[in-house]
Design brief:
homodimer, 116 residues, alpha+beta, Arc Repressor Mutant, subunit A, 3 strands, DNA-binding
Chain lengths: 116, 116
DNA sequence: ACTCATTACCTCGTAGTTCAAGGTATAATG
DNA sequence: CATTATACCTTGAACTACGAGGTAATGAGT
């Protein structure tokens, strides 16, 4: 029942994580982020603009990102950068991500580690 | 905007993957799967019955699972097992899972591997 | 000049998912 | 006799990714 073309499964929250991660290194604009994700994942993950822009706006509204407009060759780019709040949120998401991936990995390999 | 109580993020498709994986090892019934996932992931992932049962029904309808009713102590259990189709689907999902996790991992650690 | 691809921003509707809460019924426990 | 555990199930709400579409400006090709 997935029947999606690009990234069929396992994508909830991933775009937000990637965007937040990229914007802690350097400031970028939306259109740039779309291509940066494609490049950084070696074509493995492609997120459209319809995914990126709404996340950018939501994160800014939450105080996770700051933005500034910059005119380049007559066109206007909106550059985003992660704030302190955004970095805190990124830490949370990375922890969540690790928790989930480790748990899934444990089940996929039938490792019955009886801990705790 | 997560504001979810149990597993806030990164959970799309994961229940289906785990269920399919468990049912390739031995046949299980719904209520058992709920607890098996909790146990196998060391409490890291908890999926409710409201998640498990619909997936079970959908997978059976797709031919990924076979079911048989078994009365135990007056109660009726519905045991599910993965079919050949189900195992094929599991292979697909595991491949997808690996692709996504590797891609995300590469971005999280700023590994700029210029390949291809 | 004219056309087309690229850059760069954006919104909307649809589909698919998880989740909590609730509903039914039997067996075991106190 | 009441409560918990077993065991099945459905439903409504909330969220998210996705594709398609819309607006403009720039640059290249012809």
């Amino acid at each position: 029942m997935p029947s999606r073309k690009t990234n069929p499964e396992f994508m909830t929250g991933v775009p937000e994580l990637l965007i937040l991660r990229l914007l802690t290194e350097r400031e970028m604009y939306g259109y740039e982020i779309v291509q940066a994700i494609e490049a950084a994942t070696g074509e493995a993950i492609k997120v459209g603009e319809g995914v990126v822009y709404p996340i950018l706006h939501a994160l800014e509204e939450q105080g996770c990102l700051s933005s500034r407009k910059k005119p380049v060759n007559g066109r206007t780019r909106v550059y985003y950068a992660a704030t302190a709040t955004g970095k805190k949120r990124l830490g949370l998401l990375m922890g969540e991500w690790q928790r989930i991936t480790e748990a899934v990995g444990a089940v996929v390999k039938g490792t019955k580690h009886a801990n705790a």
